[in-house]
Amino acid sequence: MKDVTTPAPTNLRQALLAATTRLREAGIEAPQREARLLAAHAARTDLAGLLRIDTLPAAAAETLDHILARRLRHEPMAYITGQAGFWTLDLEVSRHTLIPRGDSETLVEAVLDHLPDRNAPLRVLDIGTGTGCLMLAVLAEYPRASAIGTDLAPQAAALAARNATRNGLGARCTTVCCNWADAVTGPFDLVLSNPPYIPHEDLAGLMPDVVEHEPARALDGGEDGLVAYRALGNALPGLFAPGGIAVLELGIGQGEDVSAIMRAAGLEVTEIRPDLGGIGRALVVKK
């Protein structure tokens, strides 16, 4: 009879040191923190809980080996854990959507300043909703608002719906699989969008975490990075309610070009708001 030996538990400190070394050699930023995040995920705890652990059970050690190998291939941490934080939300993420980024919170800040009445019954449209992060952050701040999120990918539309339910916002949110705003009708008090804006030839120069793992359709802005903004410029005038605004995410250095597109569509540009890095990130327009 074959002897089956149960794998021995693993000393956590040694596992963290080994993982940190391998992550550093792979060029992963903040390798020590990344190693701890991976270990916490493998142990089904958080960073605080990890402080109370000396030894990883065999199953957790095996999981750590597996997810460490994925991270060494530059798979983003959010795809490994299946979740990401945005604004006040805890979101599910998948390979069918971009990972929410802190820079995009600039759009939410702009909304709060331009629409200061938190009790307004806003009707919100999020074009290319992805995880739903933008519209759900707005719904969390405006308790009487309702939202429609559109996405060309059915998997993304379904994910946004799950995130709405996950954050207790499902009753005020609908997701639709369609191209831009083709399947919805206005008027809307607020239109949000984080469109694909990377010029096609620049995609290859992005970090491997991004270009090798995140969906190209959500990144590729065409030859000049502005294809999506032209589509939005055509659509927005017919979507606004009286006094309505749109808040659009911008790529680096795109403020002037996108502003020109919006003005040519008969819209007024009221603000280009910088993110914490000083990059013009949120374009606010109205009729």
From TrEMBL:
EC number: 2.1.1.297
Reactions it catalyzes: L-glutaminyl-[peptide chain release factor] + S-adenosyl-L-methionine = N(5)-methyl-L-glutaminyl-[peptide chain release factor] + S-adenosyl-L-homocysteine + H(+)
Classification via InterPro entries: DNA_methylase_N6_adenine_CS, HemK-like, N5-glutamine_MTase, PrmC_N, RF_methyltr_PrmC, SAM-dependent_MTases_sf, Small_mtfrase_dom
Superkingdom: Bacteria
Methyltransferase small domain residues: 110-233
Keyword Cytoplasm: no
PROSITE patterns (UniProt xref): N6_MTASE
Keywords from the named record: Methyltransferase, S-adenosyl-L-methionine, Transferase
CDD domains: AdoMet_MTases (cd02440)
Gene3D superfamilies: DNA helicase RuvA subunit, C-terminal domain, Vaccinia Virus protein VP39
Positions of the Release factor glutamine methyltransferase N-terminal domain: 14-82
Tagged with keyword DNA-binding: no
Xref: Pfam families: MTS, PrmC_N
Function: Methylates the class 1 translation termination release factors RF1/PrfA and RF2/PrfB on the glutamine residue of the universally conserved GGQ motif.
HAMAP family per the UniProt record, alphabetical: RF_methyltr_PrmC
Protein family: Belongs to the protein N5-glutamine methyltransferase family. PrmC subfamily.
Protein name as it appears in the record: Release factor glutamine methyltransferase
Gene encoding the protein: prmC
